[in-house]
Amino acid sequence: MVEMKFLGMDFTCAFESLSDGKFPEKDCVLPLISKLLGYCIVAASTTVKVPQILKILRHQSVRGLSMVAFELEVVGYTIALAYCLHKGLPFSAFGELAFLLIQAIILVAIIYYYSHPVGTATWIRALLYCAIAPTILAGQIDPILFEALYASQHAIFFFARVPQIWENFTNKSTGELSFLTSFMNFGGSIVRVFTSLQEKAPTSVVMGSVIGIVMNGTILSQIILYRKPHGKKEKKKD
Length: 238
What we know:
Number of strands: 2
Distance between the termini: 73 Å
Largest sheet: 2 strands, antiparallel
Strand content: under 5%
């Protein structure tokens, strides 16, 4: 039978089994599902932060958003993307990182714009990132340092969420945080654990997704918990 491959997905064994009237074996189906889910995550990632960006632009406010949290997120995505490129992982296993990084940078720029005044320390951090990021993405650093950076990116993503979680808790409000963006982040982390295991990605990559489930799940639960019912607001006005 002619091999049927598309975007790194091998449909041959599945079609052979189905043509014989049999359901494909687990070893045939799981890698195929993993690839399909991987590309679904990549496709969804192209718009995952758009709801958050639109919400800020619509309200012209960054109330309740932690600037440091979003800055650390950019740093984390940069390191994670560079590492996956360096390791030569298939695009379906990490492709969303490229789109998430672009959107995260746009989001930080918008937060800077609506945060007045922006301090000198903030501009210094931004300039340092612009100077160092291209070198990291190009993989032009010592391999040992690269591994250390990737190991640290889990801590970076963890601490990128902590300031936002704490701010939500102290304010008993999630401000301008987007429910849809947070939900997509949470769902994407769950699916990415499965695809990473199927693609035999390094344990550190899997752990990163597990941390994402915990932290994104916490923020999502806060959005649900602190959401104010519209009915109560209307009663107060009356």
